[in-house]
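Let's sit down with a protein and look at its sequence and fold side by side. We need material for that, and I hope you will provide a protein of your own picking. Once you have written the record down, we can walk along the chain together.

***
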Amino acid sequence: MSSYIGRGRKARQTFGFDEVAIVPGRVTINPDEVDTTWQLRDLRFGVPILAAAMDGVVDTAMAVAMSRLGGLAVLNLEGVQTRYEAPGTVLGEIASADPAEATRLVQKLYQPPIKEELVATRIREIKSGGGVAAVSSTPIRAAQLGRLAEQAGADVFVVQSTVATIDHISTAYKTLDLPAFIDSMKVPVIVGNCVTYEVAMDLMEAGADAVLVGVGPGAACTTRGVLGIGVPQVTATVDCAAARDLYLKRAGKYVPVITDGGMDTGGDVCKAFASGADAVMIGSALARAKEAPGRGYHWGMATPHANLPRGARVKTGTSGTLEEIIVGPARTDDGTQNLLGALRTCMGNVGAKNILEMQQADLIIAPSIRSEGKLMQRAQHVGMWR
């Protein structure tokens, strides 16, 4: 549906998490009996949640902890983990810095070059801890870091940029031949980020094993404010899921859609799956975990073409342990903990036995759903009004 926004110019109406609600089903299911499993090629995960490749969110210990819970954490190969032997010391220095000095300090600390030997070291640390090693880089360094990561035993490689396309034009540097790169890799390759049907289809046809959906929705990302680009996550997920379904019919290959960013509560996560997601990638909600390397701090992107820490610093506060945030039990009533439990309960209430059925749940446009009848919560500072 589109409307005229001026003479001869139309704009399509789109929707985000706060503007829709999920309709309960005619049949309900015991939440303990629903299946939240998703699959990435031959890898199966019981928890359809990925920790974002942000330095304040994922280090090797966090990656191991996520794996033990049944999820997946992605380590950023272009951040402090591969620039410093002791990245925890660097993160601690940033976290304790005065906000006015944070930008200058981050710029200084990210000047040292990436040490290739540390790529293998970090992957071995994850593997030795029993974790699934998923790592990421920007397209410009994917060929180099992908080779190193694969040789070191990485299980998943993520090629991530603010806006991913098959055709990137540049005379300043050599661009990545994405189809050739994916074909050369023996491990699953996730590519992102995209928000449109056409680009999602392009990435799938290029051989991506999964696509990341989301441009600028994250709390730490400034893309929408600085560049003015993006599509609300519900609409973006629906459109990219439609590409996935058509690609399955054409090629016989199911390419998971991973909604990336903009989710802070269990309700947001549930709406992502109802919009068509197979899994979700979360940053800020997990940056608040006690186990997170940033200890409550996280950073956005450095440039429109690099998934690197930005100078701006956001203090989110500690929300609890990683286990409490992912699988509970929750100690809060604002929806920021027990995200998997929220998904299971929602699936039970809509009658969805698995993720594929959850993707078919009815959605309605309901911009007042979060505030309707919540006057007393606001007055008492409980729930989402805490």
User: Anything to note?
Assistant: The domain at 15-385 is CATH 3.20.20.70 (TIM Barrel).
